[in-house]
Amino acid sequence: MPIIEVDNLTYYYPGSSKPALANISLNVEKGDFLLITGPSGSGKSTLVRTFNGLIPHLFGGRFEGKVLVKGKDTRYCSVAELSKTVGIVFQDPENQILTLSVEREIAFGLENLGLPRKVIRERMEKVLKDLNIVHLRERIPIELSVGEQQKVIVASIIAMMPEVLVFDEPTAHMDPLSALKFLELVHELNKRGYTVVVVEHRLDLVAKYANKIIILNNGRIVVKGEPRNILPSDIAEECGVDVPRYIRFFKRISNLAKISRYPISDEEAAETLKEVLGYGRSY
Amino acid sequence: MGEAIEVRNLWYIYPNGVVALKGINLEIRLGEKVAIVGPNGAGKSTLIKHFNGLLKPTKGVVRVFGVDTRKTTVATLARRIGIVFQNPYHQFFSEKVWDEVAFALKNFGFPEETIRHRVTKVLRLFDLYDYADRSPFTLSSGEMRRLAMASILAYDPDIIVFDEPTVGQDRFHKEKIREYIKLLSSQGKTIILVTHDIDFVVEEFDRLIVMSEGRIIADGAPREILYNEEILTKASLILPQIPRLVKYSEIPFLLKHKPLTEDELLIAVLGILRGDGGRC
Ligand SMILES: Nc1ncnc2c1ncn2[C@@H]1O[C@H](COP(=O)(O)OP(=O)(O)OP(=O)(O)O)[C@@H](O)[C@H]1O
Ligand SMILES: Nc1ncnc2c1ncn2[C@@H]1O[C@H](COP(=O)(O)OP(=O)(O)O)[C@@H](O)[C@H]1O
Ligand SMILES: [Mg+2]
Ligand SMILES: [Mg+2]
To answer: Are residues A86 and A185 in the same domain?
Structure first.
């Protein structure tokens, strides 16, 4: 049984005559690393909001088809209950801040899970370290820089250890090195068994970790598959996906040099470049 | 050319005691195009909030068009320097997208006709025209950010500061923002961009300022800065995509050429393929 199953979902926000999602069908299996991308306004965040029932419960609107989380229809489960399985970090960190200290922000969700003090302490120390925000622990979240806030919110969800971790443009405000490290951390979590869904534009840093990618456009899934096959496709380019520069580069020279397969990481891109230019693997 | 912005020994301490800026010195000339990068918490947003007087120096001076920001008002400065903030929803208060853009224009006393013309123009430019009657708060995050840009650009300030404009934008919209920045620059506007999108920077900007822990640690040409490992590490930067590819490939000819963009790499690679590039 898929951990999340979206079955022919069409959704209209209240008062809207154009669907934000149209005929979406999608399975997220246990252990998947699903990457969702697509142009601005294509429905990425809307789709993510259906994974813990915020849509339809909080947003209302017209909801056709269904979303099942571990086999349960989200229409008949509360957001609170669904959130135990699916932890979501939404876009725009500031709107998600609930408390007056970074430590409280992280402890809040853990206390709601009814965890013992000792466990809360341990998890807190771990995520503060993992997100490199130990120095911010006593600060007031609303008085942090936007990137710092983003790290705090991400930490607060990771600490809860839900089976499915969903991040909506988590690195949008992280500096490049933080973004790289964060995505490595998500990869680690995925390897340890967490199911991961990430909405991202920084495909150069994340594509290599995903086993599945979907591209949304105008509320529809225009293509799904493996990142290695999808990203070099013309459809990705036509939708305005920020295809990694190295893939675009090799596409541009593909009539001059034979490209055996398109790379999906920096390392592979370097190998491909050496091949193209006739530099041996060990020269 | 005169100075658009002059910062002298600027220190800023937030009321909670955080020392966010530690002696910043900076000059930005009229018509210049400058990008500011640096790790989270480096003080980038704090710095630019001084440019329209929203924050006042704890110590030191900030002059905009030669005027000390402590001796004038935010409203006066705002007419000539527009800042698109990092949290767009902070600046929204209208019920409709249209009114949001029209607001500043009305405030500055533009005639009705001009307002209609300009609002239409920027909304179309940023693909928001169809949303004119929607509430700004129902837009997607990327759309909100474009609305924030539209409402500043509509009144045509002389200096435009963008704090993270490319966040949440797809390639087409990034391209549009790039084209627009080019256009503004060709009209003599001063452009200041704060960003983590280093690939966007190298394709458009020729002056890069790197901040770290409240200080400026580098100020110069992107090519020199980005091929300097020490600065990169200090600034929590990673190389842009093309230099990263060059670095991993370890091809001496390319390392020497230091290409920053796809186009530059293409030229260098064509050189090698044609045989006039050094295989060393
Ligand atoms: N309103 C505030 N009150 C107190 N401290 C603040 C406030 N805003 C920011 N700070 C602190 O000031 C320092 C600089 O923050 P600033 O927002 O300027 O960083 P930034 O370089 O823009 O970071 P980012 O890349 O995350 O946007 C940080 O240590 C931050 O925690
Ligand atoms: N609360 C809302 N009410 C009405 N329309 C909305 C709301 N949120 C988003 N939309 C619209 O739905 C579409 C998809 O938005 P969203 O899922 O946020 O896009 P993405 O995350 O892909 O950028 C956009 O056209 C947006 O304007
Ligand atoms: Mg979104
Ligand atoms: Mg900032």
So the answer is: yes
The 10s digit of each residue's pLDDT in A209-233 is 999 999 999 999 999 999 999 999 9
Question: Is B245 in Cβ contact with A270 (below 8 Å)?
Answer: yes
Based on the fold, state whether residues A171 and A256 are members of the same structural domain.
no
Task: Quote the ligand 1 centre to B45 CA distance (angstroms).
Answer: 7
Number of domains, chain A: 2
| Residue A5 included in any domain | no
On whether both A113 and A48 belong to a single domain, the answer is yes
In chain A, the residue whose alpha carbon lies closest to the alpha carbon of B262 is A249
φ/ψ of B95, rounded to 5, equals -85, -20
**Given this model, what pLDDT does residue A283 score?**
40
| Pick from A70, A64, A56: nearest CA to A28 | A70
Q: Is the CB of B139 under 6 A from ligand 2?
A: yes
Is residue A279 domain-resident? yes
A175:B196 CB<8 A = yes
Q: Can you list the alpha helix ranges (DSSP code H) found in A131-214?
A: 146-158, 176-191, 203-206
Residues within 8 A of A (CB atoms), B 14-33 only? 14, 16, 18
* Buried/exposed B74-92: b ≥16 CB within 10 Å, e otherwise: eeebbebbbbbbbbbbebb
Reported ipTM exceeds the 0.85 cut: yes
pLDDT in tens, B119-157: 999 999 999 999 999 999 999 999 999 999 999 999 999
Structural domain includes residue A208: yes
CB contact (8 A) between residue A145 and residue B40: yes
Instruction: Name chain B contacts of A140, Cβ cutoff 8 Å.
Output: 16
A115 and A141 belong to one structural domain: yes
Task: List, in order, residues 6 or more apart from B2 with CB less than 8 Å away.
Answer: B29, B30, B65, B66
* Closest CA of chain B from A246, distance in Å: 7
- Mutation choice for A interface testing from B12, B37, B40 by most A CBs within 10 A: B40
For residue A134, the enclosing domain spans 30-57+70-237
Q: How far is CA A229 from CA A38, A151, A245, A254, in A?
A: 16, 31, 16, 16
* pLDDT tens digits for range A69-101: 999 999 999 999 999 999 999 998 988 999 999
Q: Measure the N-to-C terminal CA separation of chain A; round to a whole number of Å.
A: 50
B68's CB contacts (< 8 A; 6+ apart) are B61, B62
Establish whether residue A145 lines the binding site of ligand 1, counting it when its CB lies within 6 angstroms of any ligand atom. Answer: yes
Between helices A117-130 and A146-158, what is the axis angle to 10°? 140
pTM: 0.95
Specify if A195 maps to a domain. yes
- The answer to whether the beta carbons of residues B190 and B30 sit under 8 Å apart is yes
CA A1 to chain B, closest CA, distance in angstroms equals 32
